[in-house]
Amino acid sequence: MAGFAFPDDHGGWRGFDVDICRAVAAAALGDAKAVRFTPVSAEERFNLLRNGKVDVLARNTSWTMGRDAGEGVDFAAITYFDGQGFLAPKALALTSADELNGAKICVQQGTASEVNLADYFRARGLQYQPVLVKDEADARARYQNDGCDVFTADVSALASSRSVMNNPNAHVILPTIISKEPLGPVVRQDDPVWTDIVRWTVNSLILAEELGVTSKSAPQLAETSTDPRIRRLLGKGEDFGGMLGLKPDFGYQAIVQVGAYGEIFERNVGAQSALKLERGHNAQWNAAQPGLIYAPPIR
């Protein structure tokens, strides 16, 4: 999916979620390149994770009680606060999802989006015809070929899809948001140490942005900063890495090799990217326009 996880022209993986995985590799193994990416479908993702075929399930998986308590997995952190919306042709001049009574709606089968869609229309006494698709590419193709009237998914996924359509400006994301979709890395429930490693890697990236630490400034700050919060983050002084079985500078390695949360966001999906998504809910809690991004302290 453009902006979040996609192979480039040289076969290398790029994107927001790819960078989160690379940060975990940098923290755990000291090398951001020490990671292998395996595309998985919505139907097989949890089985592959439980069976050890993948160590981290990244992106496009919402944290819900049913999954957390019923799938034998743990959600290590939230990296992106999203919500489900609708992509529609601008020519229809729609202003709300409530105007979609009787519409044909493309939705990915076996996902939370399918359930949310049914709940939203049932609660309002509206009718719709679901067009079940296997993945984002299938939904995008059917939508562009008039196989459905609108396409529903997480807003970030819709923005990604629109960015690679034949005429992106001919489509709009409706203002109606029908769900909360907290997204982030998922791990097996039987390995609490690994869960903590993934969780505190993500927390380190978030704290770095909060404290003004970047991939470029981290080396100097590691040597000169007198702020105890920054020193702990960068592995100076107290050894918090040892609590995870990692080196003291695990956070430093993730930040220097991949970047702070803000750097990862901006280059992949924000102002420096083709998607140009606003920070919105994904702004820091203490930003001028506060968001929901917040990490527990390292202390």
Automatic annotation (TrEMBL):
Signal sequence annotation: none
Keyword Isomerase in annotation: no
Family: Belongs to the bacterial solute-binding protein 3 family.
Annotated Solute-binding protein family 3/N-terminal domain residues: 2-237
Coiled coil spans: none
Protein name: General L-amino acid transport system substrate-binding protein
Keywords: Signal, Transport
InterPro entries recorded: Bact_solute-bind_prot3 (IPR051455), SBP_3_CS (IPR018313), Solute-binding_3/MltF_N (IPR001638)
Lineage of the organism: Bacteria, Pseudomonadati, Pseudomonadota, Alphaproteobacteria, Caulobacterales
Entries under CDD domains matching the protein: PBP2_BztA
